[in-house]
Design brief:
single chain; 177 residues; alpha/beta; Alpha/beta knot; 7-stranded parallel sheet; 6 helices; 33% helix; 21% strand; globular
């Protein structure tokens, strides 16, 4: 096997990305503080053609050199919006017809491997702060919660890693192109 060079990889241009059909999915970052995590979420969202990212509360917005280190330009391709309050973002998404799911460990959460999605629906996922997770009032406003099954001694994953796992599963279940 020969490793492919960067020029051999089939990739969209920025203009092609902006015109491409997007996954019916929005990522909401609830008080995420790390610029590296935010940049990583942008990069992963680009990889899976996520429609938009809502940056809420203390979550930084582009442009920022530290964010760019992990986003590698995805902050220029993926549409984003800033909302001071995550609850306002959730309400806005509900008003636009989105099913909003917090990615959080709660009583009665749906395990990711058991999650059923409808191809005709629009979804938003809320990713929480690195220490506190998704705020309780935001969890209360969501339509449900999804949890990644874990089997080791740790009870959480990094927010950017979690986002990658969740986006892969949503893309796998929803992509029709």
């Amino acid at each position: 096997m020969r490793k492919l060079s960067i020029t051999e990889l089939p990739r969209l241009t920025v203009d092609e990305f902006k015109k491409a059909e997007k996954l019916p999915l929005v990522v909401v970052l609830d008080e995420v503080r790390s610029l590296h995590n935010i940049g990583s979420v942008f990069r992963t969202s680009d990889a899976f053609l996520v429609d938009c990212i809502y940056l809420c509360g203390i979550t930084a917005t582009p442009p920022h050199p530290e964010m760019h280190k992990t986003a590698l330009g995805a902050e220029d391709t993926v549409e984003w919006k800033y909302r001071e309050n995550t609850l306002d973002a959730v309400r806005e998404l509900h008003d636009q017809g989105f099913t909003v799911l917090a990615i959080e460990q709660v009583e009665g959460s749906t395990m990711l491997d058991k999650l059923e999605l409808n191809a005709g629906k629009k979804y938003a996922i809320v990713m929480g702060n690195e220490v506190k997770g998704v705020q309780q009032d935001v969890v209360n406003a969501c339509d449900g919660c999804v949890e990644i099954p874990q089997y080791g001694t740790k009870h959480s994953l990094n927010v950017s890693v979690t986002t990658g796992i969740i986006l892969w599963e949503f893309a796998h279940k929803l992509m029709k192109f």
